[in-house]
């Protein structure tokens, strides 16, 4: 099932909305109906929500513009009820690039807040976000935007991974230390900060602080797993771990040929092609289900798995890792420079290759010290 849907494309970057965001709007509307609020209050509340998300979108576009400046491709921007996510197809190459890309998002929010200052009544304080949020009217809309953007900038600049502030901290440390030391130290800062936040929440009874402290602890452990993966994959290319054992199906195949093709093997996935051009990846179960439910010709094009983008054999594994489907056995096509399919790649076959390399290269228990966290992170992905 697709968990997000595209709402627009800005400069070639797809902007996706996570389905839970719609759930949030329905929930807010339901609260308005239950509370018997007048129609204009309900519209204003939804307007508030959308204004926040437009500011979040501008924040993510700030990261996009900075990343593009360094030729770092962006695969998509995703908007969720808890904020936005920019998916980079490649990681920043130097600490300076990491600092610039990370700080660009909060800078956009600071610029929006500064632009609001001439429109604010004298003596405006930014920390009264809650008050403004619950009593928004056309007269204090600029004040609301000012508060929201300052809050977004401050929250994102906290020195904890995976927030922008954590990435800036890692980038600054990376200017003086090795990438590994910079990451380790940022992780220690993140843990201290998260525990302090959760502790402050416990002492003051602030549930938001407790939740945010726990969230940062959890999210930073995922960052750690991702770092271990990128460390192990750093010298490998797609071509080094490519799998040539796959089956193709042509988009014009007849029903009988299709039946014969999938009954002659036990492959879980197939590459769908149209005159040697890749159309997508098909799931065996979906094909069987459609064969059972229809006596007509099966439209294979309509069954391809969403969000599968072919990669080239020369790409670095670290650059395409996040592009791979989260289900470890789902593969994506690997193409040559002239766009011909030459193999497939999945998280499963990358891991088995890395395991083989590590065991033959080291033949020491130390190798397993690196591999165990990697396997654990895969099981939880
Ligand atoms: Zn950001």
Question: How are the SSEs ordered, and which strands pair?
Answer:
Blueprint: E1 4-10, E2 13-18, H1 19-34, H2 39-69, E3 74-80, E4 83-88, H3 95-116, H4 129-134, H5 141-156, H6 164-174, H7 179-204, H8 207-233, E5 248-250, H9 255-263, E6 269-274, E7 277-283, H10 284-293, E8 311-312, H11 317-320, E9 332-335, E10 341-345, H12 347-362, H13 365-379
Parallel strand pairs: 2-3, 5-6, 8-9
Antiparallel strand pairs: 1-2, 3-4, 6-7, 9-10
Helix pairs in contact: 1-2, 2-3, 2-5, 3-5, 3-6, 6-7, 7-8, 8-13, 12-13
Bound molecules: zinc ion (ZN).
Distance between the termini: 17 Å
- In DSSP terms, counting alpha (H) and pi (I) runs of 4 or more, how many helices? 13
Low-confidence stretches: 363-371
Order of helices and strands: EEHHEEHHHHHHEHEEHEHEEHH
Shape field: globular
Helical content band:
40-55%
The total count of strands amounts to 10
Instruction: Describe the main β-sheet briefly.
Output: 4 strands, mixed
Going across the major beta sheet, what is the strand order? 1-2-3-4
């Amino acid at each position: 099932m697709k968990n997000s849907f595209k709402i627009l494309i800005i400069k070639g970057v797809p902007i996706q909305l996570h389905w839970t965001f719609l759930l949030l709007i329905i929930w807010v509307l339901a609260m308005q109906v239950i509370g018997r609020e007048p129609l204009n209050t309900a519209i204003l509340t939804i307007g508030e929500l959308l204004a926040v998300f437009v500011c979040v979108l501008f924040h993510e576009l700030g990261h996009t513009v900075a990343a593009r400046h360094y030729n770092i491709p962006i695969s998509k921007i995703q908007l969720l009820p808890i904020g936005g996510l920019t998916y980079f197809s490649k990681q920043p190459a130097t600490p300076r690039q990491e600092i610039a890309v990370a700080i660009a998002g909060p800078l956009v929010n600071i610029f929006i807040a500064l632009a609001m200052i001439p429109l604010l009544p004298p003596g405006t304080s930014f920390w009264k976000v809650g008050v403004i949020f619950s009593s928004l009217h056309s007269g204090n809309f600029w004040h609301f935007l000012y508060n929201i953007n300052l809050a977004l900038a401050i929250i994102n600049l906290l020195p904890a991974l995976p927030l922008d502030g954590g990435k800036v901290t890692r980038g600054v440390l990376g200017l003086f230390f090795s990438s590994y030391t910079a990451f380790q130290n940022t992780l220690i800062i993140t843990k201290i900060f998260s525990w302090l936040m959760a502790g402050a929440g416990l002492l003051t009874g602030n549930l938001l602080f407790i939740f945010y402290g726990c969230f940062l602890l959890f999210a930073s452990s995922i960052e750690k797993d991702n770092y271990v993966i990128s460390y192990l994959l750093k010298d490998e290319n797609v071509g080094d771990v490519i799998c040539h054992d796959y089956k193709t199906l042509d988009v014009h195949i007849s029903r009988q040929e299709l039946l014969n093709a999938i009954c002659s093997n036990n492959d879980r996935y197939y590459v769908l092609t149209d005159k040697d051009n890749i159309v997508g990846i098909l799931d065996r179960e979906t094909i069987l289900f459609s064969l059972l439910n229809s006596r007509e010709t099966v439209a294979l094009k309509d069954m391809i798995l969403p969000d599968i983008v072919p990669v080239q054999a020369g790409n670095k594994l670290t650059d395409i890792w996040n592009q791979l489907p989260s289900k470890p056995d789902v593969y994506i096509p690997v193409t040559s420079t002239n766009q011909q399919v030459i193999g497939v790649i999945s998280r499963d076959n990358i891991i088995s290759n890395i395991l083989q390399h590590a065991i033959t290269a080291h033949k020491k228990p130390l190798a397993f010290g690196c591999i165990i966290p990697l396997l654990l992170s895969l099981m939880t992905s």
